[in-house]
Design goal:
Blueprint lengths: L1 H22 L9 H12 L2 H34 L1 H14 L4 H12 L3 H25 L3 H9 L4 H39 L4 H10 L3 H37 L1
Helix pairs in contact: 2-10, 3-4, 3-6, 3-8, 5-6, 5-8, 6-8, 7-8, 8-9, 8-10, 9-10
């Protein structure tokens, strides 16, 4: 536990030291850590900045919920139905090659500008990673446990709710964990391409005014936000693994 806490701190200190040395060596476009820290403090003290962050969080987590709500039922269908699996599997790899920045202009044409379009973009980005993780988790459920449940007379729905989904939960949460971080990226890409009132718009304004300190400060806020969500789901995932191992033993 000490190593897990100390290692990232040491790496962060080394990165900041390297950053400070690079910025102090005459770099024009790389702001110093102190200037970024000052800008970050000023931004966080501004209530308007928090409203921008709130919009981005609503888009990201709304998209993550949407993608999860669609991906999980489809994963169950793929797991339970050979026909659905045969129809869907060939397209899973191809969908991963579609960049978010290519989808955004199409969504604008189909749905127009606004919060809903960005949420749908985030949902599309997180949908496939969550779907694949859920399918893999369901396929690796211990068949002996499922067969034992069938012998005891458990229905298909009962097996799904009380055996398969709980045992596949660590894999599902792994997909959700990655999906949430991708949703934050999707929200920023969506705002920068489709417009909006979140941090993606803030980044666009900062880029056009060559406000590098502001851009780095905003990126740090996004990184911290995504890392916090990632860590929270990872903790949930670890707890589910412990519970699953206890139930198996």
């Amino acid at each position: 536990m000490k190593r897990q806490m100390l290692a990232p701190v040491l790496l962060g200190v080394l990165l900041i030291l390297g950053w400070g040395l690079s910025a102090g060596a005459g770099s024009v476009l790389l702001p110093t850590p102190t200037s970024v820290a000052a800008r970050l403090a000023a931004d966080l003290a501004d209530p308007t900045y928090w409203s921008y962050l709130g919009v981005t969080l609503a888009e990201a987590f709304g998209g993550a919920l949407l993608g999860t709500a669609v991906a999980l039922p489809l994963a169950v269908l793929v797991h339970r139905s050979g026909w659905v699996a045969a129809a869907v599997n060939p397209f899973l790899g191809a969908t991963q090659a579609i960049p978010a920045i290519a989808l955004a202009p199409l969504l604008v044409l189909w749905l127009g500008y606004g919060l809903g379009s960005v949420i749908i973009l985030c949902g599309l980005i997180v949908f496939f990673p969550i779907l694949i993780s859920a399918v893999v988790g369901l396929r690796h459920v211990d068949a002996d446990v499922v067969d034992a449940g069938r012998i005891d007379g458990a229905s298909s729905i009962a097996l799904l709710l009380h055996v398969e989904l709980p045992m596949a939960l660590p894999s599902i949460l792994g997909g959700v964990r990655n999906g949430v971080t991708l949703a934050v990226t999707g929200a920023i890409v969506g705002e920068m391409v489709m417009g909006g009132s979140g941090l993606g718009t803030v980044l666009t304004i900062q880029r056009e005014s060559v406000d590098t300190a502001g851009m780095v400060a905003t990126i740090i806020v996004l990184c911290v936000t995504a890392s916090a969500a990632y860590a929270a789901i990872h903790l949930w995932e670890r707890r589910s693994r412990i519970i699953d191992s206890l139930q198996r033993s």
